[in-house]
Amino acid sequence: MQDNFFYSRKATLSLKISEFEIPPMQDLLIIGKKAPIGPEAVKRMAQALSPEQFSIIKLEHAKIEAILIRDSLLQMLDERVLMQIILEEADRSISDNMVLRSELKISISVQREVEL
After folding, report:
1. How far is it, in rounded angstroms, from Cα 44 to Cα 28?
2. Is the distance from CB of 98 to CB of 20 less than 8 angstroms?
3. Which residues of 45-81 are buried (b: 16+ CB within 10 A; e: fewer)?
């Protein structure tokens, strides 16, 4: 039996970025290197508001120290791919003293063809 089929798997991302406000929790926070609140304080805040739902990812970046991100998003898409996209977009908007919040929605589309 020969497995002749076409398989395609893609992810579509929609990313909205705005300045940090209260209440702060959306899908992710992008923390500048000189922001008034640091990664550890952001992590404690996330734990208090939404226990066990967020992870902090520390970065080597010119302006960004870390990203707080909803764990469910990391389960849907590879972390490297996700961080690359977030950094590319945030880099255009952020200064090192800012904290940006972002809504991130991921929809996955799968298309398969099988030979009959």
Report:
1. 14
2. yes
3. bbeeeeeeebbbeebebebbbbbbbbeebeeebeeee
Read off the pTM. 0.76
Angle at 43 between CA 38 and CA 45, to 5 degrees: 95
What are the pLDDT digits (tens) for 42-73? 999 999 888 899 999 999 999 999 999 999 99
> Which of 11-25, 46-60, 88-102 has the weakest average pLDDT?
11-25
Give 10's contacts (C-beta < 8 A, 6+ positions apart): 108, 109, 110
Q: For 77, how many CA atoms within 13 A lie in the half-sphere containing its CB?
A: 21
CA distance 39 to 80: 19
pLDDT-based confidence at residue 18 (cuts at 50, 70, 90): confident
